[in-house]
Design goal:
Growth Hormone, Chain: A
């Protein structure tokens, strides 16, 4: 991309110290953002069913979230690059999240619930801008740390919000999590309005829309995106798919046990994400990705072989911890080497492609599970993880391809670390 600098070639804004106030506001915004999207998740499927949706209808309601992200995350990134600002997209995302929560809370028909679930997907598109903005608040040398912190904050916020949302629903009824999510979105909007973006230099050449879209031809960005699709398939075939079903079917797990199972997967995932910043100083990024996929594969195999619920909890923890290493490492690889005028487009491309795993993963895993049983679903997840672990070196290791396909003047450096 014209005007891009190589990673490590710091400009004046790159050498600026981290603004602690802005970083603190970005942390709080991130937590409120994800909480507003996940507070009602525990009751979403039951609410769709209560309003009259069958199994297929519930699936469509849930899929609307990922499908909208698949369509709109690339335009979100390109547009934020074009105007040179991230804040308006974060604000718009929080507005969309609040509107979606209110709409779902007041819905009286399944199709209305699905419509506003799609609006929540629009809100989730703001993650493109928020991740880039967060990374731009720290020097380039700390980018891996920033993405690790983002992974920790997003996973942790989703977990806490889901647990609190379930408690709210039990205490105050199914509408309470939706209304609470709208309130969190409004609070997030107020906090994000105080966040000051770092100033960016005007590039010598303003890239056209087509030049921005050309980032999608960069080999390592494509590799990171493909590996992320694989990681989301593993996630939705296990933790967010068949692990609870396995626990209920084989071990007669009830609500409390299923909640503990969720925590066992999510907490190591959050901690694994937080560890990426420290581990990235010792290991190249592709090795972290490969190690994470190997752990996830081992967790998937251990889950289907688990002789007790406690063993299943441990297997879920192993799987979650592995995927926690994968997510931030791939996010870093996706945008490393792109200048400020191209990072939004690169992140939008990356997040749009991994949304395929979000709405396609449950469908494919369900087909495999219906054909081969639960063992087949977990086996497919393990196989995908192992293939991804092997492919990580080829797709992400340094010196295995040029970035000239992006644009003649592009300079994309090694995202392997």
């Amino acid at each position: 991309m014209a005007g891009s600098r190589r990673a490590g070639e710091a400009g004046p804004q790159d050498r600026a110290p981290v603004a602690s106030a802005s970083l603190a506001l970005a942390v709080l915004t991130t937590c409120l953002y994800w909480a507003s999207l996940y507070l009602y998740v525990p009751v979403l499927a039951p609410e769709a069913h209560r309003l009259g949706a069958g199994v297929a209808g519930v699936g469509l309601v849930l899929a609307a979230y990922g499908f909208v992200q698949f369509l709109l995350r690339i335009p979100t990134g390109v547009w934020s690059d074009r105007i040179g600002r991230r804040g308006p997209f974060v604000w718009g995302a929080l507005v969309a999240s609040g509107v979606a929560a209110l709409g779902m809370g007041l819905a009286r028909r399944p199709w209305v619930l699905g419509l506003f679930r799609g609006v929540s997907g629009l809100g989730a598109c703001g993650w493109v801008a928020l991740t880039v903005l967060f990374a731009e608040l720290v020097p380039p040398a700390r980018a891996a740390w920033a993405f690790g912190v983002l992974g920790f904050l997003s996973t942790g916020s989703q977990l806490v919000a889901s647990l609190v949302g379930g408690a709210l629903a039990r205490a105050l009824g199914f509408q309470a999590p939706f209304l609470g999510a709208a309130g969190l979105a409004a609070l997030g909007l107020a906090v994000s309005a105080l966040l000051r973006e770092p100033r960016r230099p005007t590039p010598a050449h303003a890239p056209t829309v087509w030049e921005r879209l050309a980032v999608g031809r960069e080999r390592r960005l494509l590799g990171a995106s493909g590996l992320s699709v694989a990681s989301h398939y593993v996630t939705f075939a296990t933790t967010y798919g068949f692990t609870p079903l396995l626990a209920a079917d084989r071990f007669r797990a009830g609500g409390l046990a299923l909640g503990i199972l969720t925590v066992c997967a999510a907490a190591p995932s959050a901690l694994g994400s937080l560890a990426v910043g420290r581990l990235a100083a010792r290991w190249p990024g592709w090795r972290l990705v490969a190690a994470g996929f190997v752990l996830a594969a081992a967790g998937a195999v251990a889950a289907v072989l688990a002789p007790s619920l406690s063993w299943l909890d441990a297997a879920s923890a192993l799987l979650g911890g592995g995927l926690g290493l994968v997510g931030p490492s791939l996010m870093h690889a996706a945008v490393a080497g792109f200048g400020p005028e191209a990072r939004g487009a690169a992140m939008g491309f990356y997040q749009s492609l991994y949304a395929i795993g979000m709405f396609g993963g449950p469908a494919v895993a369900g087909w495999v599970g219906s054909a081969l049983g639960l063992s087949g679903a977990f086996g497919s997840a393990a196989a995908v993880a192992l293939v991804a672990a092997v492919a990580a070196h080829t797709l992400l290791a340094p010196g295995r391809g040029a970035a000239a396909a992006v644009a003649p003047r592009a300079a994309v450096a090694d995202p392997g670390r």
